[in-house]
Amino acid sequence: MPTTSGKIGRGVTLKMGDGASPEQFAAIANIVNIDGLEEQLGTADATLLVSTRQEIVPTLFQDGPVTLTAHFDPNHATQDDATGLRKALRDKTLKHFKIDFSAAFSTGDNLCSFSAFVTRMTNGQITVDGLMEITVELTPDGSAAPVWGTAP
Question: Which of 21, 95, 135, 139 has its CA 20 to 30 A from that of 64?
Answer without folding.
Answer: 21
